[in-house]
Design brief:
The complex is a heterodimer. By secondary structure, chain A is α+β, with helices and mostly antiparallel strands. Chain A is built from nine helices and eleven strands. Chain A has three domains: about 130 residues, 2-Layer Sandwich (Beta-Lactamase), CATH 3.30.450; about 80 residues, Orthogonal Bundle (Helix Hairpins), CATH 1.10.287; about 140 residues, 2-Layer Sandwich (Heat Shock Protein 90), CATH 3.30.565. Chain B is α/β, with parallel strands linked by helices. Chain B has two domains: about 120 residues, Response regulator (Rossmann fold, 3-Layer(aba) Sandwich), CATH 3.40.50.2300; about 100 residues, Arc Repressor Mutant, subunit A, CATH 1.10.10. Chain B contains eight helices and 14 strands. A five-stranded parallel sheet of chain B has the order 2-1-3-6-7, sandwiched between helices. In chain B, α4 links the parallel β6 and β7. In chain B, α2 packs parallel to α3, α6 crosses α7 and α6 crosses α8. The radius of gyration of chain B is 18 Å and the shape is globular. Classes of the chains: A alpha+beta, B alpha/beta. At the A-B interface, α4, α5, α7 and α8 of A face α1, α7 and α8 of B.
Chain lengths: ~425, ~220
């Protein structure tokens, strides 16, 4: 829910409660005033009638309301003495409305010439249900008008006020660390937004610093590992040349060298990965992808023969890409290597070059892979010790660098398609 | 043959020294910028192994000094940094080669011998071993003066084994030298065996005076019969 509407929600509930309470109080007060005024009128009328009766005794015989609004009846003295003025609501049939309508009636008693009379005076009064209805309608209109005006003020004024906030939010949504230049918050006079802008900028700067530091750290750490690795491997190579070693000594040394080689490969891959991400490969040129494939398929032929995997190459088009040549070779190498390594005996690797894309299909396990996870670092399905788990992560880093898209799908074999722009 | 190692990592320098002494080279070493400068000014070397990051200065400055003395053509840069810029600068300053750490001893051997061959034989890039004669520029092999046709990989294997004769060559080192870095995840390099098998057969049929022996679990060794 938007902040604007959020405040509106609470405002509308509060207004509804306030207006309802106010309406109830207003209604009671108004009605009280109306009765008060009516009763005063009736009292005055009573006095007028009594005064008139003193002059004209004929009206003492008026026993029905009929066309006028009073009636007089004789009362026994005992009853009349106890009588007090009573104001009350009652119903009366109204000709014009053809219905019983509420009237205000004053019942009183008076004495004239030693006779006692009961006097009833009526006055038509407010129709309460009509009053409530009218009041309700006006209040609904008032309520709607208030909400509407709040909405309008919110949408025009507040939207304008909150503009720097939404601008910042949009930039933050788009922001990818390490890829985009620093965000540029909008100028604002509002103190809170100013502080927000400053805080966000500070936070991003710090994050960026940490990110760069971490990237640099991986690169530096990989570099620092090179020398000890070199010393270890070379020492073992020298050691293995000694004449006094038994065959089992040699096997053990061989295994240690292989393990160190694995470490070396891992280190090299990490270094490559951070170099790609640190954009240290410049020198882009028009690279002939077909030629790279042809060359590498030839390079891999011994390995493919050994694994008993057949490689086919189909060129439906001539594909060029504007990128660093070394990276292009690493890109293709990793695809090919991956397709040969994760294959079966008597399997196949089919490379197809199409306009603006190439596809590598390889036989292998019959279980589709997770197209998201395979490009993650160190995601290994097999426990093959010669697999660094970085091959496809490097592919991903290169494709990200050049804006290429790589799609994996399973279609009676594992298929990777790379789309060039 | 006199070789200078300029390297601040004592242990690495010691390993390289031991390896080179096996090849009967005279080895001297310098561990920092000042002593390296001192040595290159005072003596002549057939080959200089130069580390770029040195205490007290940059190896590239030493290279510049060597270039000024017109002595930079026998330098092999050995660096932990696989930096294209350093490589280009180094080669521009006249260095012969650029090797990234970690490297294999056999690879270093091959590079050093390549530098020395070019220096010693007046551009004649050939290696002779018994009745075997390799021309590394024309990429031809003669056994008892009879030409023997090898495919590209067989030739690369043989030349690498020949310059590392009597030394144990790690199969990783051999694979990296012949097949390039691409093969680095390839199943313990067993796939190189079929090429070696063919090469052995050809050598035997031509009665070559050399043999490539397998060293179980480690690699291969070329011996003169």
């Amino acid at each position: 829910m938007k902040l604007l509407n959020h405040t509106l929600k609470y405002l509308s509930i509060t207004l509804l409660v306030i207006i309802s309470i106010w309406a109830a109080i207003f209604y009671v007060n108004m009605l009280d005033e109306v009765y008060d005024s009516l009763d005063d009128g009736l009292d005055n009328y009573k006095l007028l009638i009594i005064k008139k009766a003193e002059e004209d005794s004929t009206i003492l015989n008026k026993k029905e309301f009929a066309e006028s609004n009073y009636e007089i009846r004789e009362l026994p003295e005992s009853v009349a003495i106890l009588r007090k003025d009573i104001h009350q609501d009652t119903l009366m049939y109204m000709l014009n409305e053809e219905d019983y309508e509420p009237v205000r009636m004053l019942t009183s008693a008076f004495a004239l010439n030693n006779k006692y009379y009961e006097l009833k005076v009526i006055s038509s009064m407010v129709e309460e249900d009509d009053l409530i209805e009218d009041l309700l309608y006006s209040l609904i209109w008032l309520y709607v008008a208030m909400i509407a005006s709040i909405l309008i003020v919110n949408n025009f004024l507040l939207k304008k006020t909150w503009k720097p906030f939404y601008l910042l939010l949009d930039q933050l949504k788009q922001f990818k660390i390490g890829k985009d230049p620093m965000i540029k918050p909008a100028e604002t006079q509002v103190k809170e937004f100013k502080e927000l802008n400053e805080a966000v900028t500070l936070l991003l700067n710090r994050t960026l610093e940490t990110y760069q530091g971490q990237k640099q750290f991986i690169e530096n750490a990989s570099h620092e590992l090179q020398t000890p690795l070199a010393i270890s491997i070379n020492k073992l190579e020298l050691l293995s040349e000694r004449e006094d070693l038994t065959e089992s000594n040699l096997v053990a040394i061989g295994q240690i060298i292989q393990t160190l080689e694995r470490l070396k490969r891992l280190n090299k891959s990490l270094l490559l990965l951070s170099k790609i991400e640190n954009k240290q490969f410049q020198d882009n040129e028009q690279v002939d992808i077909n030629a790279i494939f042809k060359n590498l398929i030839e390079e891999f032929s011994d390995f493919a023969d050994y694994k008993n995997v057949h490689i086919s190459f189909q060129e439906n088009d001539q594909l060029y890409a504007y990128m660093n040549k070394d990276l292009a070779e690493i890109f293709v190498t990793n695809f090919l290597k991956n397709a040969i390594v994760h294959n079966v005996d008597n399997g196949s690797v089919d490379v197809t070059i199409n306009p603006a894309s190439f596809t590598i299909r390889n036989s292998g396990s019959n279980i589709p892979l997770d197209g998201q996870k395979i490009f993650q670092r160190f995601h290994k399905k097999s426990n093959e010790k010669n697999n660094t788990g970085l091959g496809l992560a490097i592919v991903k880093a290169i494709s990200d660098l050049y804006g290429l898209s790589v799609a994996y799908y399973f279609d009676n074999g594992h298929k990777m398609t790379v789309y060039f722009k | 043959m006199k070789i200078l190692i300029i390297e601040d990592e004592t242990e690495l320098m010691e390993v390289i020294r031991q390896s080179l002494e096996k090849e009967s080279f005279l080895v001297e070493s310098a561990g920092d910028y000042a002593s390296a400068l001192d040595k290159i000014i005072s003596f002549d070397y057939d080959c200089i192994l130069l580390d770029i990051m040195l205490p007290g200065g940059s190896g590239l400055d030493i290279l510049q000094e060597l270039k000024n003395m017109d002595k930079s053509d026998n330098v092999i840069i050995i660096s932990a940094k696989d930096s294209l810029d350093d490589k280009l600068t180094g080669l521009e300053l006249g260095a012969d080669d650029y090797l990234t750490k970690p490297f294999h001893i056999a690879e270093l051997n091959a590079r050093i011998k390549s530098v020395l061959r070019r220096k010693s034989f007046g551009g004649k890039n050939t290696v002779e071993l018994g009745n075997v004669k390799l021309d590394l520029d024309d990429r031809t092999l003669h056994i008892n003066n009879q030409p023997l046709l090898l495919n590209r990989k067989e030739f690369d294997i043989l030349s690498y084994m020949v310059v590392n004769k009597n030394r144990l060559v790690n199969k990783t080192s051999l694979a990296e030298h012949v097949w390039g870095d691409h093969m680095d995840e390839a199943d313990d390099y067993e796939f190189i065996y079929s090429q070696i098998k063919n090469l052995r057969k050809k050598l035997k049929e031509s009665q070559a005076g050399i043999e490539i022996q397998a060293v179980y679990g480690l690699g291969y060794k070329l011996i003169v019969l």
